[in-house]
Amino acid sequence: MANPFTPGFGTPPTVLYGRETEMGLIDRTSFTLGAKHPAHSRATIITGNRGIGKTTLLTATVRRAQGMGIPVLRVGAKRGFLDDVHYAVDWLVDELGRKPNLSLAEINIGLTAFGVGIPGAKLTRKKRAADAHKRPFGASMRVLIDLLVRRKMSGLLIVIDEMNFKHARDTTLEHIVSFSSAYQSLIEDDLPVAVVISGLPIPIERARRNQHISFLTRAEEIRLDEFTYQESQAVIRTIAQASDLLITDSAVEAMAALSRGNTYMIQEIGYLAYERSGGELIDVEHVSAVRTAFLEKVIGSVAGVAYEELSTKQKLIIRTIAEQPEITPKEMARVLGAAETSLPGYRKDLVDAGILVADPEVRGRFIIAFPYMKEYALRLKNEGAENSAAYDRVTGFPDV
Ligand SMILES: Nc1ncnc2c1ncn2[C@@H]1O[C@H](COP(=O)(O)OP(=O)(O)OP(=O)(O)O)[C@@H](O)[C@H]1O
Ligand SMILES: [Mg+2]
After folding, report:
1. What is the pLDDT of residue 214?
2. Which InterPro entries does the annotation name (predicted)?
3. Measured at the alpha carbon of residue 110, what is the angle toward residues 190 and 30, in degrees to the nearest 5?
């Protein structure tokens, strides 16, 4: 039997656990393409921290839309993504002109071939494609939507993953702004187009505050959080049942505890324990045996990645709380070199993103909620200590 656990980024799980409400919301805002006057701007944003299932939910959305006969344009909002979208749209307009009977499947391959890289797709991007655009982006979109509607299709769904950018001068932000203004004008003209976007909470919140990205302000937001301990157990049990795998109760509890409710981490511990068990029955011994390997993996590749994406001040806050969980607001202000009254401002994005959670018992005290980010930050401290030992050794020789 193949391992039923699927750790990976964007790897569809064998069982998509507990996203019924979210799928319902996406359907409501995005699949009303046939309706003349939709209630919303037909935009949905999925936010959540690293490894929480955003890409997976987008993939489920794409499949559902395609099942309903809706063409889907899917891209990753990496550098230059607007050129990729633009090029794909122009390509499809040409194709539709030449081949009147192009199937929905072929249309979707053309639309997905950029940005997410479908293996085996025939379409390759020409060099300097950006210079070769025939019309402005908005105009290309209009031509495409018109062609789709004439083919009795209900419209176009655009799916954008990883809408993250680091700072105001990021070129990705410029592309997002250009995309937004083109999209906005399509919506104003009542054209059947919808968008589902995903990204990390902090950049998405920043984008929502940007006055040049107006469609995001009115978008419906779906926030993905960690599963609870009970839910994490249910995820593991459901996956095991679906593949006739036996797991003891104590193994399920140990796996759920280690996962801390992060979907990536649930899959990772499941994967490792399954491999260790040989595939017949997972018991708690197998889980203990892979515990260290699991921690190595998730501290570095999930918590560490999420930490390194934070700003310098945010990192300092996390590091300080990791090292001194009982720090007073006054001491924290001193560490940050700021006034005590400005602390909430510094913390706000971390709290909104669910990376920090207020301790209900002690006013002004916070705990690090992101799974294993505390452990990652403490490692940095130890590295610092090792470095300073090396420094002392090297500089410990007197000048003669
Ligand atoms: N609802 C779910 N039930 C079970 N497993 C899930 C669920 N959602 C996601 N997963 C699993 O969790 C892992 C991470 O999912 P995904 O890549 O979608 O996260 P993400 O939020 O896009 O992460 P990132 O921010 O790093 O891109 C994948 O291995 C996926 O199979
Ligand atoms: Mg993702």
Report:
1. 82
2. P-loop_NTPase (IPR027417)
3. 35
